[in-house]
TrEMBL record:
Gene Ontology MF term list: kinesin binding
Keywords assigned: Cytoplasm
Protein name: NISCH protein
Localization per record: Cytoplasm
InterPro entries membership: PH_domain-containing_M2 (IPR053015), PH_NISCH_C (IPR057714), PH_PLEKHM2 (IPR057288)
Amino acid sequence: YPSEILVQKITEDNQIPVHLHVSVSLQYVAGLKGRALVEFFHSNIAEVENEELRHLMWSSVLFYKTPNVEVMACVLLSTKAIYFLLDDSFVHADEHQSDFWNKENSDCENSSFHLSCCFVLKLNDLQSVNVGLFDQYFRITGHSADHIVTCLTRDSYNTHTFMQQLMAVLSLLARTPSPEPVDKDFYSEFGSKTTGKMENYELIHSSRVKFIYPNEEEIGDLAFLVAEKMDGLTNLPSLNILLYVLAFQVNHVEGSAQNTSSLQPKTLILTSSDLFLFDEDYISYPLPEFAKEPPKRDKYQLADGRRIRDLDRVLMGYQTYPQALTFVFDDVQNQDLMQNLTLDHFGE
């Protein structure tokens, strides 16, 4: 049984982000407190009797097989596995991936019984963890395409806490020690780099799981990409990325019964002269080892961009975190700078 301090910590973490909507079944889980939450884990989720629940986190998740469907999940870390408790709506969101989820309980759809899917990634199957820029997200990679999940925490604190807990749990695993490294001479150490590009910073845990962090070159690549989108109007050396944050763009739904709004995931990048919104692929890059071909889309796709000098005012909401910001730009005639050239302006 976990200590009182751990139970209290897990209870405090068991809160759904206020801006995201979840199904009734996950709302039930979020309502559990203290020992009831631990008992729920052991009686409904845990696969073996002696595993301990160590950490709980609510996060949006993406799967490698369904890269366009972001779904809310309750992420539970135990001493044996990582469990992703998902909305049942996710199973029906992408009909093409029905083989990914075994839909055996379809007869429960019309009953009062609320179903949740639980995706399990055993710690023994874990191979690497890629941490995104500025700790806004992380990708967990197993041994196949079915075992790649990205957690979009949009919060460096949550990412950091999960990494600490995961490393602590991995330290308990009894794995065979890796063979002693062969001493390399100077020429083999520095002469075998055919790419000419610095590798990302890697930390190999004692459990042989790789923790891969972005290096400074990723920011440089991103700055170069942003400069390209600006059509060369700014010289690259003076271009500094001041802010990179995973956010949502709010689209108000017209004609709905209630004043509802849909949230579109975007990557917001602020430079000294422009504000950009990108559609970013958080799951496909860097390419997993088994990938036979590159992903169908680029890592960054420009969705919108405006010059800071055209910014008229910024409206701030009064609610608590997450804060809503409205950027109001002047209606400038010359906006060819920001238009997506692939967009057909004369179509429907």
